[in-house]
What we know:
Elements: E1 14-17, H1 21-33, E2 38-40, H2 44-51, E3 57-61, H3 69-78, E4 88-92, H4 99-107, E5 111-115, H5 120-181, H6 186-217, E6 226-229, H7 230-247, E7 251-256, E8 262-265, H8 267-283, E9 290-297, E10 302-309, H9 343-353, E11 357-362, E12 369-376, E13 400-404, H10 408-420, E14 424-428, H11 431-441, E15 445-448, H12 457-466, E16 474-479, H13 484-492, E17 497-500, H14 505-517
Parallel strand pairs: 1-2, 1-3, 3-4, 4-5, 7-9, 13-14, 13-15, 15-16, 16-17
Antiparallel strand pairs: 6-8, 9-10, 10-12, 11-12
Helix pairs in contact: 3-4, 5-6, 6-9, 7-8, 8-9, 11-12
Amino acid sequence: MTDTPTVQDPQLRVLMRTATVKDATMASAVLAQSGIQTRVCSGLSELLDEIGHGAGALLVSEEMLAGSGAAELAAAVADQPPWSDLPVLILARQGADSRAITTAMEGMANVTVLERPIRVASLVSALRSALRARRRQYELRRILEDLNEADRRKTEFLATLAHELRNPMAPLSTALAILKRKPLTPETAQPYYELMGRQLDHMVRLVSDLMEVSRITRGKIELQLDDLALDQVIRGAVELSRPLMDAGRHTLEVHIADEALAVKGDNVRLTQVFANLLNNAAKYTPEGGRIDVFVEQDGLGHAVVRVKDSGAGIPAAMLEAIFDMFMQVSGTARAAQGGLGIGLTLVKSLVELHGGTVGAASEGANRGSEFTVSLPLLDHGVRAGAMAAPPEDTMAAQHRILVVDDNRDAAESLAALLGLLGAQAAVAFSGTEALAKAEHFQPSVAILDIGMPGMDGCELARRLRAHPQLHGIGLIALTGWGQPDDRLRIARAGFDHHLLKPVDVNELAVALHRLDGHGIA
């Protein structure tokens, strides 16, 4: 992509064809003293030819427009790209307007007529104004090129997203068709349930990545910083990427320095960083390849993690752009087993949020690649308990739970699941129905959808809180709205927990357990 030209750029030169060679020589020398680059043309045909090699403005004498000259010049200017409005300055003779100038002005939009003799200062001033306008046109061209590139990437991304979402939908649809048409024992049906669970998890990851990159790029993410043992973070990432490694029959070796390395960071986010890099290596490495992870320090106060693979490699021209949004190396998307092209964008953003850097290196196509992450080292070890395990996922028994969602399938299936987990569950499909049912059912917990027509989940929550018999009810928002502004609005409505659709059973169990622990009646 061409940057905005500088003064010495050929695209800002003034193409000249004056009445005489002497006039051209004198004008060129005067303009050069003012920092204006010129190219003196021997005739109109040469000037028209030079336009194709770049021009900031044209300076021609009236005499050059005689005959068909004005029409030829107008045709050449009209042949410019849509962003271009090439300035044309005509040095005219004193007196009445000539037919040549009239033709030129009718055929071109950006024409300035300067009557001879002209003061040097006036000529310089007019050309500087013309060149300033030309610079703005080049800036417009750059913006249009950027927009076209962004539009191209967006189109490719939407096509990739559609493809990636269809992939898990196909086995989901097939498994459902089998279960509906063929009576199966629990044992023979179990593989289909597991298949459906895997495909649903894949779809959830796709959507979660999209939401994550949106939050990060808008600066709407907060890190939960703690002192972390880097080797434990790497081991966690290896476990997450193990299925892809095994599927590709790759050899994975982790080389960790003898000295323990500690960093200040968010355990979940850093694990995500290295899992993304390992997944990326697994996807772009042919079956049976080798992937190495090196964890060391550089002697300058930084921990350095290198993920090296024997895979497809990265062309030199792509090394800088590889971290851009929706960017995938051309020709490798199919070999990569899909993906939205946002994994490395997430990596770069998260690493920079930790005060670190990430870079890519490759010797070329089919020669592997290496990603290097550098993070500031702590000058002390990790304190005890910093890597404590999350709370155990347990379902609080004997809850009476009201599920409210205008999507009947969503409400009834969740109620059925809660019943299997030991709770008493009832459903309502609107805010009004929920209020009426709550008075008779007397739930200890209500799980509410937010985006319902009429009375939305936030208004329903406020009314439940205000009800004299229900003010102590536990409220869980289960919704697709997960942006920071949404979370703030939902919290202000009185919810105890905010979960995202599709529900993660373990997260729901933890939320219910916490409500039970606080003595919700």
